[in-house]
Structure formats: C-alpha cells, structure tokens
C-alpha cells in the first residue's frame, strides 16, 4: 500500500468480482476502517503484474494464477497467497449454435472434428479465458471426456471474455469456456448454447480468490485481516436472495461490469459466494489445482503439498474470522 | 526488427510508432486489437501492448500453444536491470518478444514505449486541465455579467465580489461562479444547468 493512500484492489469485470464491488459500495470495507480504491483491469496478466509490482495491493484472481505466479510459470516468480476464496461456480462451456443443433452437442462436436480431420481441414478453434484458469481445465476435461485430445484435435486459444459472443457469432471461435455473465450474453445474443457448467462437473472447484503477495501479507497483517472479514461479509450479502435485485443493478453499472442485468442475474444463479464450503481456502483445493496444471503439462514435478501449504492460507482466514 | 504495437488508443500507438522511428532496422505496425491472421502474416519480433488491452491474455497463451502457434512469445523481463519490469507496469506497457531475442535489442523499444506512454498521459492531463480552465473562465465571465446586471455593479466590482466569495468559502473562483449561475437559474425557475 502507498504509505497514506487508499488500498488499491484490482478486479476484472465479471459477476464473481461481486464481493469486492459489494464490500466497496455497501460499506463493508468502510466498516473495517479500510479506505479502498477499486481498479477495473482489462486482463489477468495485468492484474498479476500489478500485484507483483506493488501497483495493486491485492486483486480478484483466478485461483490457479496464484499458483502459477508463485511457481514462476508464465511470469517471473513472485510468491503470492490466497487467504480467502471468493466464489465457486459460474464458469461454463458454450458452443456455437451452429454446432449444438437439436441433438447431443458433444457428439455433434466430436463428429465435426473427425470429419474435418478426414477432409484435412484445419482444427476447430475453442477459447478459454486464460491458460491458468479452471475454465481452461474444465474445457480440456470436457473435451477429453468426448474422446478428443485438446492439444491435437482442437486449436485452443485465449479470448478476452467480453469478446466471446462476438467472436462466436463471427465464426472465429466455435465455442468457449468463460465465467458469468458471458455464457448468458452469448445465449441472449442467439449465437451460442451452454453445454456444460462447472457446477455439474466440479462443484467444489475454487474459482476466484483474493490474491496478494506473500510479502504484502507479511507487512500488513492487520489490514489483511480486515480485508478478509470485509470480503467474507460482502460475500454473505451477495449470497442473500433478498439482495439480488440490488446486486444485479450494482454489478450492471458502467464502472463495474457494464453488462445486461438479465445476463448478470442468470450468472448469479450459478455462483456461490458464501459459506464454510466456499470461502476458507482449503489446501486440498490448491493440490487439486496443481494436479490439473500437471495433467495438461503446465507444470512438471512439483512438491504439491509444500506449494499448497505456502500459497493457500486457511490460517490467515481463520485468524481473521475465527474457526 | 519487426515491432507490433497493440493499443486500443490509436493516438498513443501512433506516438509510440513515431518514437520508434530512430531505431534501426525496424518495421513497425500498429493495431487496436490482436488479430491472429494479421500477426501471423507480420511475424513480429516484439509486441508492445498497452496494459489495459485485454489482448495481453491472448498473447500470454501463445507460448502455451507453441506446438501449433507460429509465434511463441515470452514477456520481456530484463534481469540485468532490476525495476525495469515494475517501471513498465506502472507506465502501462508490457512487451512480449519472440523467444531468444536479446535484451539489448528489446530494451530501447520498451524505453521508447514507456516514455511515449508517459508523454501521452501528461498530454491528456494537460488537455483536461486546459478544458477545465476554459470552462472555469467562461463561468467567471458569465457570473460577472450576472452580478453586473442584478446588483448593478461595474465589471471590476463584480469580479471583486466573486473573489471575496471564493476566499470566504475557500473554493476555487470557477466553482463559486458555477454555483452562483446554478443558483440564479434555480431562483429564476430555469434549468440549473
């Protein structure tokens, strides 16, 4: 944190940024005595770099990104930690309406991939939102379940979530895995159909976490405790059905998601923000994420337990909120 | 060396491109968004990208899919110069280079980009200030005219009254003048704007 200024926290315009936005707008940060400035960022890479460089004190992060940054995969190594998980659910795979038709979308996709291979055509392109994301792992896992090799039979790319519906419509990509509200946006635009949701495959997978550097956490223990409490309470507020209309209107605002309220509401229905099963960062989750990274060749041999212990910090969560 | 600049802000991209003019040998291309076909055709050695561009995440994925992708990239971090990466982050610039390109060749490109991003930021701030100054001067002129008419003052006295209001309230002259105009509008039953 800058010596006197407010805490700088970054977020990506997604429904699951709700705990940060709610904490700011509904006074949960203020109740903890925290002055916070929220900064909307355009990419996960910039979130990671700004947190690493200290331009942000902390941020809304993809859970596997904390691990990748700490291991120095895809960037210079910087020890980061997850002291609270923000949500579960919300990610889903959406395929182009051209593929889904009336029948089984997975069978249709497999059929098309094989036919194009016989014809010697280029592989179909599908997109995830970032290499180190459960979205990437869900998409790959789902493809593998169809008997497809995501590294051979498909061309996987990364597309910024706000562009997914347009690129699907233009036929640049044939499908994508992204968080809310982007699947609902593509469906509303009539260009895609959601075929599988995270909640159906890995309901317990941690999606976004609060990410801070280990250095910052050690230097600001009291502020971090306040931050964890404020985010947990904001998550409880966001999860309360009575608050849904207000939450939808808040997230839809131009400075936050700048997206259609209907798509946001549809996304919210898929996401859990609150509870003992959601917020405490459990080390077996970190271990599971590391296994996904290893499965797809992003990491080699690592000491899973050691990495999980250093990065996932239930001790800090408990210290802030009690067991 | 071939440099691709990806920046949603076309004026800033042009400024960076112009700044790179002195570096030789060089071919520069500017794009608002990452376009795979375009990039494949241009074959850049260096991609300079604005931090605010969502395309950074796409660029980071290129090294992941190196088996099928023609342009594997790594983010440029010069270990011999501590603080350079942080400086670039704060300036709002990231650079990706084709694996193996030497730091010595990339650094001048990144330095030009950083300085131009700073320059653009400064220009924008100056422009915003100039606009605010102009608006403030217009408000003062109109408030002065209002006071001259309503209070039957000469120009000098009307200005002194505004300045006294400004000093008494500790607020800028332009703000006091704008308030006065808004109140006058309300009192007359008109639209305060």
Strand order of the largest sheet of chain A: 2-1-3-10-4
Q: Let me know the average pLDDT of chain A.
A: 94
CATH topology of the largest domain in chain B: D-Maltodextrin-Binding Protein, domain 2
Largest sheet of chain A: 5 strands, mixed
Total helices of chain A: the number is 17
Radius of gyration of chain B: 26 Å
CATH architecture of the largest domain in chain B: 3-Layer(aba) Sandwich
Task: Calculate Rg of chain A over CA atoms.
Answer: 19 Å
Distance between the termini of chain A: 28 Å
The ordered H/E elements of chain A are EHHEHEHEEHHEHEHEHEHEHHHHHHH
CATH C-level category of the largest domain in chain A: Alpha Beta
The N- and C-terminal alpha carbons of chain B lie at a distance of 54 Å
Contiguous low-pLDDT stretches of chain A (5 residues minimum) are none
Strand order of the largest sheet of chain B: 2-1-3-5-4
Superfamily (CATH H level) name of the largest domain in chain A? Periplasmic binding protein-like II
How helical, in percent, are the residues of chain A?
Answer: 40-55%
Number of helices of chain B: 7
Class per helix and strand makeup of chain A:
alpha/beta
What is the arithmetic mean of pLDDT of chain B?
86
How many domains, in number, for the residues of chain B? 2
Features:
heterodimer, A: 323 residues, alpha/beta, 2 domains, B: alpha/beta, D-Maltodextrin-Binding Protein, domain 2, Arc Repressor Mutant, subunit A, 5-stranded mixed β-sheet, 5 strands
Question: Would you write up a description of this structure?
Answer:
The complex is a heterodimer of chains A (323) and B (193). Chain A is α/β, with parallel strands linked by helices and 323 residues long. Chain A has two domains: 197 residues, Periplasmic binding protein-like II (D-Maltodextrin-Binding Protein, domain 2), CATH 3.40.190; 110 residues, Periplasmic binding protein-like II (D-Maltodextrin-Binding Protein, domain 2, 3-Layer(aba) Sandwich), CATH 3.40.190. Chain A is built from 17 helices and ten strands. In chain A, helix 7 links the parallel strand 6 and strand 7. Chain A is globular, with a radius of gyration of 19 Å. Chain B is α/β, with parallel strands linked by helices. Chain B folds into two domains: 123 residues, D-Maltodextrin-Binding Protein, domain 2; 58 residues, Winged helix-like DNA-binding domain superfamily/Winged helix DNA-binding domain (Arc Repressor Mutant, subunit A), CATH 1.10.10.10. Chain B contains seven helices and five strands, in the order E-H-E-H-E-H-E-H-E-H-H-H. In chain B, helix 1 crosses helix 5, helix 5 packs across helix 6 and helix 6 packs across helix 7. The longest helix of chain B is centred in the middle third of the chain and has 48 residues. The radius of gyration of chain B is 26 Å and the shape is elongated. The model of chain B has no long low-confidence stretch (mean pLDDT 86).
